[in-house]
């Protein structure tokens, strides 16, 4: 298969044509550099044409163009010399560094610098005149100067590209952090909303089902009273949460987060909904707020699940603060429920597991065998020492 030549850049073609036409004008006018040479001035057209052709490859084959252009420059040195050939060569040296491989950025300036020094020393030894320094200076201007300029421009270009990539990566990381923060906040809001409302709605569902299924005015009135109380409390909590979410100025005081100090009222509410609850709490004072909130929500959700699913019997809540952790256990009868049931989605267990995971604690929930028969047990261990250490830091 024939080897396909790379397509030159349009600007490089214009540059080559301009250099060739400029060199032809100089040739017609008899403008040269040295005034004499080993061959006739007419031969200067050949290096001119070759260098102009290499200009079309300055971007697609920069190093090959420089090698051929260097040979053309030496050939031009045998003639009186065309200024256009030398100017186009300087551009080839510049382009070889700017568009070449990373190795070209390191090697070409060093190579051209050494060649310039070698030419200077050679002519000094040969002529033994100070004018030899001018020859070396001319060689440096033609070769080393463009190569060094190309290296500087390329370094600035690479630095700008690296800065652009860093900015894009920073923006991407910021977007990822924002998305993770939004996801975490949505999960937190879902847990809070579920824990605040699920208990009231479960009681409403169970007592409304009982009121509809029993033809007893007294029982129906009692059930309606419980329904009204739970609906009013749930509506108040919903309004408080929505008010905080809608307020963007920060004028509203945030609702105080519940703690284990409110465990008594939580248990009384569960008893009012028909649960037989006993509490065995042995905890110290001054629990960290995240631990107190998590423990309160775990007990609240466990009582809600017991209201929805537990069989007849006693629900036990145990709290023990031992060393640097708070152990929590809620057990309820496991079995078929005689009365009406409220549907469950499993979101409560997910929320409890997430709360414990955020505090780096342990959580487990499932049926167990006990002295009173089979029970559903929710057990969690919430570390206290880690939270207090984090506050000190």
Polypeptide structure, described:
- The chain is α+β, with helices and mostly antiparallel strands and 393 residues long.
- It has helices spanning 10-29, 45-55, 62-77, 83-99, 102-127, 132-213, 217-246, 263-272, 289-309, 347-358, 385-392, and strands spanning 276-282, 314-322, 325-333, 362-370, 373-383.
- Helix 9 runs antiparallel to helix 10.
- It folds into 2 domains: 10-169, no CATH class; 256-393, 2-Layer Sandwich (Heat Shock Protein 90).
Q: How helical, in percent, are the residues?
A: 55-70%
How many domains, in number, for the residues? 2
Q: Order of strands in the sheet with the most strands?
A: 1-2-3-5-4
SSE series: HHHHHHHHEHEEHEEH
Terminal residue distance: 71 Å
Low-confidence stretches: none
Main sheet attributes: strand count, strand direction, barrel closure: 5 strands, mixed
Round the Cα radius of gyration to an integer and report it: 43 Å
Strand runs, count:
5
| Quaternary class | single chain
Assign an overall shape.
Answer: rod-shaped
Q: Hey, roughly how much beta strand do the residues contain?
A: 5-15%
Structural class, judged by helices and strands? alpha+beta
Q: Helix count, per DSSP?
A: 11
Overall pLDDT: 83
């Amino acid at each position: 298969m024939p080897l396909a030549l790379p397509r030159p850049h349009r600007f490089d073609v214009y540059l080559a044509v301009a250099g060739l036409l400029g060199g032809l004008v100089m040739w017609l006018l008899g403008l040269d550099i040295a005034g004499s040479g080993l061959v006739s001035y007419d031969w200067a057209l050949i290096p001119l044409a070759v260098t102009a052709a290499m200009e079309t490859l300055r971007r697609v084959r920069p190093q090959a163009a420089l090698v051929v252009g260097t040979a053309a420059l030496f050939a031009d040195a045998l003639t009186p010399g065309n200024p256009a050939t030398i100017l186009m060569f300087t551009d080839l040296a510049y382009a070889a560094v700017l568009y070449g491989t990373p190795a070209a950025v390191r090697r070409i300036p060093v190579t051209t610098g050494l060649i310039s020094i070698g030419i200077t020393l050679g002519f000094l030894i040969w002529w033994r005149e100070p004018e030899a320094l001018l020859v070396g200076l001319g060689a440096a201007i033609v070769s080393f100067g463009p190569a060094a300029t190309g290296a500087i421009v390329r370094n600035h270009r690479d630095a700008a590209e690296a800065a652009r990539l860093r900015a894009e990566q920073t923006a991407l990381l910021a977007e990822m952090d924002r998305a993770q923060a939004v996801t975490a906040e949505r999960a937190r809001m879902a847990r809070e909303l579920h824990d605040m409302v699920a208990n009231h709605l479960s009681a409403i569902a169970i007592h409304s089902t009982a009121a509809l299924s029993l033809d007893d005015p007294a029982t129906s009135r009692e059930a309606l009273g419980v329904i009204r109380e739970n609906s009013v409390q749930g509506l108040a909590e919903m309004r408080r949460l929505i008010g905080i979410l809608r307020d963007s100025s920060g004028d509203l005081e945030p609702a105080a987060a519940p703690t284990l100090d409110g465990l008594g009222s939580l248990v009384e509410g569960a008893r009012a909904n028909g649960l037989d609850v006993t509490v065995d709490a042995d905890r110290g004072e001054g629990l960290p707020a995240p631990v107190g909130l998590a423990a309160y929500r775990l007990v609240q959700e466990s009582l809600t699940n017991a209201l929805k699913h537990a069989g007849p019997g006693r629900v036990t809540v145990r709290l023990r603060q031992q060393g640097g952790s708070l152990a929590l256990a809620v057990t309820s009868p496991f079995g078929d429920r005689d009365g009406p049931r409220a549907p469950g989605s499993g979101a409560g267990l997910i929320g409890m597991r997430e709360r414990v995971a955020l505090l780096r604690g342990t959580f487990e929930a499932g049926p167990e065998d006990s002295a009173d028969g089979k029970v559903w047990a929710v057990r969690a261990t919430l570390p206290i020492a880690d939270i207090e250490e984090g506050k000190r830091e």
